[in-house]
Specification:
The protein is of the alpha/beta class. It has one domain: Vaccinia Virus protein VP39 (Rossmann fold, 3-Layer(aba) Sandwich). The chain has 7 helices and 8 strands, in the order ββαβαβαββααβαβα. An 8-stranded mixed beta sheet has the order 1-2-8-7-3-4-6-5, with helices on one face. α2 links the parallel β3 and β4. The longest helix has 20 residues.
Length: 220
């Protein structure tokens, strides 16, 4: 199976993760942010205070994320991933009833004064094994909102934190790769990785982003 893109540390495949994963080498950690089943509207124009209807009538949109996330129109089933030895799944609160007991990793997205002001204050990931609850604050999503390449993109330090909390040393796979944040985190940590993404436009975005990251790492 030929990768869409690869580096000395990792490989990116374009396709359906449920079809591709059984054909791959054994992995140590599944770390991913899957479609939750929210049928989420990724068009951020709806949060603008401007006259959006007038803008759209003229065929103009300020949103960078038009269209739906593939798979987000149905409930997420975590069961195919639970057979792997180590697993971290973001979106825990959307499918908690289908998961066994485990550790919770809480990404706090805001400073205290901003709690309750807009959408969620935090996001929760479930980690296979353990029973603890651990938190990390990273408020960079606000400053980086206009630079995101995917509507559900996570900060790189949060993904690095998740990898470190897993206490694994081997291959990391992200079956819902998006813009490639998991690979960027792995490249920084010198960890082997595999990514799978069903939308080719995000494969292209991720490949360019990873390549840019590798060039930056070489400079240092």
């Amino acid at each position: 199976m030929k990768p869409y893109y690869e580096t000395p540390l990792g490989k990116l495949y374009h396709g359906d993760c449920l079809e591709i994963m059984p054909e791959l080498e054994p992995v140590d950690l599944v770390l991913t942010d899957p479609p939750y089943g929210m049928n989420n509207n990724t068009d951020s124009d709806r949060f603008s205070g401007g006259n959006i209807s007038s803008i759209r009538e003229r065929g103009i949109s300020s949103s960078r994320f038009e269209g739906k996330i593939i798979g987000d129109n149905k409930s997420f089933d975590p069961s195919p991933f639970l057979k792997y030895p180590n697993v971290i799944l973001f979106g825990y609160n959307h499918f908690a009833q289908n998961l066994p007991k485990g550790t919770l990793l809480v990404w706090i997205k805001r400073f205290d004064p901003a709690f309750g002001t807009f959408l969620s204050d935090a996001e929760i990931a479930w980690m296979k094994k353990g029973i603890g609850i651990y938190c990390k604050r990273d408020t960079s999503i606000t400053a980086e909102a206009n630079n995101r390449l995917h509507p559900n993109q996570k900060p790189i330090p949060i993904i690095q934190w998740c990898i470190e909390k897993s206490k694994t040393k081997g291959l990391v796979i992200d079956p819902f790769f998006g813009s490639g944040t998991t690979a960027v985190a792995c490249e920084r940590l010198n960890r082997k990785w595999i990514g799978i993404e069903i939308e080719e436009k995000y494969c292209e975005i991720a490949a360019k982003r990873i390549e840019a990251e590798r060039k930056q790492l070489k400079l240092f």
